[in-house]
Amino acid sequence: MGGHGHGEPYKVPDASIYKIENVPKLVEVKEALARQGLKDPWLR
C-alpha cells in the first residue's frame, strides 16, 4: 500500500535542453517583443 516497487522516481529534465529557436511560435513572440525594444532575458 505504500507505493513501493514502482520503479525510480521521475527525473525532471534540465530546462537548458530546451531552446526558444526550436519553437516557431516562441520565435514569433521574441521578434514581436524585440520590435518593441524588449531584450533578453524576457523570454526565459
Automatic annotation (TrEMBL):
It comes from the Eukaryota. This is Complex I-B12.
